[in-house]
Design brief:
The protein is an alpha/beta fold. The chain is built from ten helices and nine strands. Helices cover 47% and strands 17% of the residues. Strands 1, 2, 3, 4, 5, 6, 7, 8 and 9 form a nine-stranded mixed β-sheet that branches. Helix 2 crosses helix 4 and helix 7 packs parallel to helix 9 (219-234). The longest helix is centred in the N-terminal third of the chain and has 23 residues, at 72-94.
């Protein structure tokens, strides 16, 4: 079997039922082609923020879930990615897709504070080689049975503590250890240059120039850095594209670029 397709989704998409519906329509078609396995990684930051606003969790007047008193914010940000996973799993059943919701295993917690760099990731991979090989066996077991792992960015460490990691970093590591192909779906059309224009293809050196100039900001920084690490280690391009172009998603899954292709 070819290395799996690792698709990272997040942002506004998780709050848009029409977008999720069209996403699963595309996954359904690709899933039934059985050309390669699929792994879906959810990024629930915006979804979590909306939950806080909806239920007023951050209000000092809400005694049941007072962040100041019970540290509710940390607890909820840790468990909400798995709630999102269950929601996505429910959608998969509508399209007769067999999926399995998974938490991260304990060795991932080392990535919480590590910077996204080639040096740090290579050290992480080397240090956890044995654990990674065992984890690969578990994921491959699902893929061989045509089961899609729905992986959230939360996990439990050896002491039973809940931890949460940036989902772009989770998708990056999964792609590397499974020798897969990474697609990062976001709410912008592509990586943009200093004039706001789409960059169709960009290399390591060009991205560093954009980072240094401040043209790439906020959440896109981690996405770009994660894509760079994958392209450098695996010698494969990474696609960063918009989930708004959902009519083109099947093309993206089969290798066509509609956003920005990150190359070594």
């Amino acid at each position: 079997m070819k290395g799996p397709l690792v698709v990272k989704i997040g942002g506004i998409l998780l709050n848009n039922n029409n977008a999720i519906k069209r996403l699963f329509k595309a996954i359904h078609v690709f899933y039934n082609l059985k050309k390669r396995g699929i792994i879906l990684v959810n990024g629930s930051c915006l979804f979590s923020r909306n939950i806080f606003q909806k239920f007023n969790f951050s209000s000092s007047k809400n005694n049941f879930c007072s962040i100041e008193k019970l540290n509710t914010k940390n607890i909820l940000f840790s468990i909400l990615p798995n709630i999102v996973n269950i929601r996505l799993l429910a959608w998969s059943k509508r399209y007769k897709i067999t999926g399995q919701s998974l938490l991260l295993t304990d060795f991932f917690n080392e990535l919480i504070l590590n910077p996204v760099s080639i040096k740090e990731i290579n050290f992480f991979l080397k240090k956890n080689k044995k654990e990674i090989l065992e984890y690969i066996k578990i994921i491959q077991m699902f893929l061989e049975k045509n089961i899609i792992p729905f992986i959230c960015s939360s996990g439990l460490d050896l002491e039973g503590n809940i931890f949460n990691i940036n989902s772009d970093i989770v998708a990056m590591i999964l792609t590397i250890i499974l020798n897969g192909h990474l697609i990062i779906l976001t709410d912008v059309n592509a990586v943009l240059d200093g004039k706001g224009q789409r960059i169709k293809e960009i290399s390591y050196r060009e991205i560093n120039n954009l980072l240094d100039s401040g043209s790439i900001t906020n959440g896109m920084i981690t996405k770009i850095k994660s894509a760079l690490v994958v392209s450098k280690i695996l010698k494969k391009p990474v696609e960063i594209a918009s989930w708004h172009n959902l009519n083109d998603l099947l093309d993206v899954f089969t290798g066509k670029s509609i956003g920005t292709k990150i190359i070594e």
